[in-house]
Amino acid sequence: MAVVAVLVRRPLEQVSGLLRRQFHRTAPAALQVTVREAINQGMDEELERDEKVFLLGEEVAQYDGAYKVSRGLWKKYGDKRIIDTPISEAGLRPICEFMTFNFSMQAIDQVINSAAKTYYMSGGLQSVPIVFRGPNGASAGVAAQHSQCFAAWYGHCPGLKVVSPWSSEDAKGLIKSAIRDNNPVVMLENELMYGVPFELPSEAQSKDFLIPIGKAKIERQGTHVTIVAHSRPVGHCLEAATVLSKEGIECEVINLRTIRPMDIETIEASVMKTNHLVTVEGGWPQFGVGAEICARIMEGPAFNFLDAPAVRVTGADVPMPYAKILEDNSVPQVKDIIFAIKKTLNI
Fold first, then answer.
1. What confidence score (pLDDT) does residue 13 get?
2. What sign for the dihedral angle of Cα 10, 16, 201, 131?
3. What are the φ and ψ backbone dihedral angles of 38, each rounded to 5 degrees?
């Protein structure tokens, strides 16, 4: 009533101006940005911010990248900053793109034995600020040699930081943090997510937007079961949670974002609330990311809060088949997640 009284006493022009100012205070609308565009935007901003940053990899320059993630960067920054050859120079901050992480096996000695260990073996005198990035995990119709997840491989190795984005917000915030980090960072993207648009919040549109490496995000609040995933399976988990909510089952979905260092504290706090745990990943089951999460929960304070054994949903323990029907049965689907959740809830 007080606000109305003030408006009544003011001339119409003043009231109109006051209302306009109120409208201007509304938050800017979120943009629809694909994961590909978010990574490109993050790299562009960091290349612009720091002249020591450069990008190298197969076809990243004139061809704009195999998946067009580096589109426009060569035209903007030229041959000295966007390089079609696998060379890194001391004192700079290279971004090395693998056309697919399946090809990173050719460089795994340099990634593991050189990049990951140099800081430790130099007694902290020589840091290695390099980003290894590219598509990882199951793709579509490319069979066994091009369709597998390396999160557990690289997450196993001390000296590396390993991030695995799902959304455009994840992709932009994590690539920028990875570039600024003084340690070698492996960024595991997903080919099937590159063209998927997400709303990019206003804060993520800032050139100063960063996502801390080592911090998970709760994508959906819930009370009955905790679901933990990374990369593309996060979307499957949210779909499963939507279906189950219609049956009165409220799932808490955690987007891991970082494989190493792992944010076990967020997972523990969620398990202590829901008393149930399901992990979801596209990789193989043995020694996988889900296996590590289950072990850490068993060894920590959250174990005593579990009302049922933790359940893992993983890719099948086989090389990826080529036939589509076999491929679909080799990677977690929404129905598989729903089945696992009902199993752990004894429904």
1. 52
2. negative
3. -65, -45
Active-site choice (146, 156, 239, 250): 146
CB atoms within 10 A of CB 86: 15
Q: Does residue 243 carry a pLDDT above 90?
A: yes
Give catalytic status of residue 58 as yes or no.
Answer: no
Catalytic residue among 37, 59, 89, 199: 89
Q: Side by side, which strands form the sheet with 93-97?
A: 82-83, 53-57, 93-97, 131-135, 185-189, 161-163, 258-260
**pTM attached to this predicted model:** 0.85
Helices (H), the chain: 2-9, 12-24, 35-49, 73-77, 108, 118-121, 151-155, 168-180, 233-245, 264-274, 289-299, 324-328, 334-344
CA distance 332 to 316: 8
Q: Indicate if 89 belongs to the active site.
A: yes
